[in-house]
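Good morning,

Attaching, inline, the backbone tokens for the sequence recovery test we're adding to the shared suite. The designed sequence is right after.
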């Protein structure tokens, strides 16, 4: 799950990025408001963590700008501004959640997963399609009740497909969700991960839509 972190404090930003990466997030980190606005307008992040006290452009202005532009991804405000009026203003201009520093990084990860889950209309943390169950918090997948060993990238790909079950995702969309800045993407990487998921979870779970992309099927396709 790829997210944007906008934080100008180098120590805090490095710590948050490292902590979220340990929980399976792919994190792109910017250090000023103008960069945050540009990335939020131009990249398909699953969610964003936004500090309000950013140089070059205040976080509140970033929120107002991207919401006015129609950017709908979940945005969690992480800030030292703990006054009630600040919290109210942040929420009113478009924040989906508001957390005051310091914050436990596992709580931050849980809040991000909840925001992404709700954005996809999924009320439960546990995702299920056919005989496959995915638990994002523990990063464990089950097939017919038995845990299946997946690589980190395989798990992330399955998570993205299950969040969007029934909807076709192009290879480019999948790559944008799987890889953060600076990560090399081999031309056939998505195809390789899809093949491995099929071999571990069943050939009928993920369908190739020729010339378009891939779709995860909630139910097994009926026989013709």
């Amino acid at each position: 799950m790829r997210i944007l972190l906008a934080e100008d404090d180098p120590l805090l930003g490095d710590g948050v990025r490292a902590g979220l990466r340990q929980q399976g997030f792919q994190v792109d980190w910017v250090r000023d408001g103008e960069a945050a606005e540009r990335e939020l307008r131009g990249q398909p992040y699953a969610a964003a963590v936004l500090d309000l006290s950013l140089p070059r452009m205040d976080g509140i202005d970033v929120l107002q700008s991207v919401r006015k532009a129609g950017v709908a991804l979940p945005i969690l405000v992480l800030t030292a501004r703990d006054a009630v009026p600040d919290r109210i203003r942040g929420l009113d201009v478009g924040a989906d959640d508001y957390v005051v520093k310091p914050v436990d990084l596992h709580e931050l990860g849980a809040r991000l997963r909840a925001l992404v889950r709700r954005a996809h209309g999924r009320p439960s943390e546990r995702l299920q399609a056919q005989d496959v169950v995915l638990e994002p918090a523990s990063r464990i997948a089950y097939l017919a009740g038995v845990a299946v060993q997946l690589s980190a990238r395989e798990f992330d790909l399955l998570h993205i497909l299950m969040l969007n079950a029934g909807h076709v995702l192009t290879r480019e969309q999948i790559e944008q969700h799987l890889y953060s800045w600076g990560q090399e993407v081999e031309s056939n990487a998505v195809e390789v991960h899809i093949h491995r998921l099929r071999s571990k979870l069943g050939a009928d779970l993920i369908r190739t839509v020729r010339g378009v992309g891939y779709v995860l099927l909630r139910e097994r396709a009926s026989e013709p």
